[in-house]
Amino acid sequence: MRTIKEKSDATFIYTSKYLDDQASAFILDGEKSGTVLFSPFGSHDGMDEEELHTFLTGESTVSNLKEDPEWGTYLSAYAAIIDSRDRSVVGLVGVDYSEDHFDQLTSRFALLLNFSFAIFTLVTALALYAAILTIQDHSGLDELTGLGNKRAFNRTLHLIIAEAKKRNQPFVLCMLDIDCFKSINDSYGHPVGDLVLQSMGKALLDLTQRNRSCFRIGGDEFALILPSSSRLQAVQAKQELCNHFKHLDIPSLQDRKVTVSIGIGEWVTGITAETLVSYADKDLYEQKRKKACPTTP
Asked: Which residue, 108, 217, 238, 244, is most buried by CB atoms nearer than 10 A?
């Protein structure tokens, strides 16, 4: 839980279970054990309106800005932990963000991707992000790049679709492919090819502030999920990505530049995960069809 807190820059993060309409009990706490802020297993806490709503309905909720004489101004978001066997709510993930951290995070997203996230959308995504991190244990990581692997991608995509259905909000899937990657392997060798893949993974993690929405799904194929985004916003992000990859410095490639093709698929109500992937793949193929590989040195 502390690792999730550090990676998400949350002020507080915890899991809890329902006791009654006035109280909940802590299960896991992101604070260091023994510190004044740590809440031990089983300790009780008051129940606010949004938290109770999540326990009773399973819907993610977010509070208005709260003022506290000790903690200052902050926002709280809650996401239900669902038992897949009977769809019952067995607990929730709570995330608190201070006003300072929230301002920094929204600014960072704006600089990187030029997205205009509404407060509700962003904080809901942050609560969902904590759930995504729990999926991506070591069995869901690609060892070469540090990105999520295909297994993690499939699980995360279905999670994002389920959340999008609840909110009736679109999102975008980008499929990325390194142009002429086979010729890189053939001309420079597979160790250099691995360096290119690792550079691609690092670039995606850096551009997304390591938010775990990017994946290597096989070979030189990558995927990036952009929550709560339109196709127009994805086109802007696509340009940012393409420009960034043009400036990747891989000395072993000498003067050869790495370029990528990016296909975009926008999810709307009624589209399955498989259909969304096929839309993005088709757009990716169209982008690659227009390009020619450089001559072998």
From this structure: 238
One-letter amino acid of 217: I
Residue 267: in which H helix or E strand, if any?
strand 260-267
Cβ atoms of 263 and 286 closer than 8 Å = yes
Residue 227, both tokens:
């929550």
Estimate to the nearest angstrom the gap between the alpha carbon of 280 and the chain centroid: 18
For the chain, what percentages of helix, strand and coil (3-state, to nearest 5) are there?
A: 45, 25, 30
Mean pLDDT of 72-88: 72
Give the DSSP H or E segment for 66: strand 66-68
Query: Phi, psi at residue 148, to the nearest 5°?
Result: -65, 150
Which pLDDT band holds residue 8 (cuts at 50, 70, 90)?
low
Read off the tokens for 182: 């086979």
From residue 43, give the alpha-carbon distance in Å to each of 92, 254, 288: 15, 60, 56
Q: Indicate the helix (H) or strand (E) that contains 284.
A: helix 273-289
pLDDT tens digits, 174-213: 999 999 899 899 988 999 999 999 988 888 887 776 555 8
Q: What is the DSSP string of 74-86?
A: EEEEEEEEEETTT
Note if the pTM is more than 0.70.
no
Residues whose CB is less than 8 angstroms from the CB of residue 243 and which lie 6 or more positions away in sequence, other chains included? none
- Please tell me the number of Cα atoms within 13 Å of 28 on its side-chain side: 17
pLDDT, tens digit (0-9, with 9 covering 90-100), for 32-49: 777 767 778 878 888 888
pLDDT digits (tens, 9 = 90+) for 259-278: 899 999 999 888 999 999 99
Q: Which helix (H) or strand (E) holds 135?
A: helix 119-135
| Domain annotation for the chain: domains and CATH numbers | 2-133 (3.30.450.20), 139-289 (3.30.70.270)
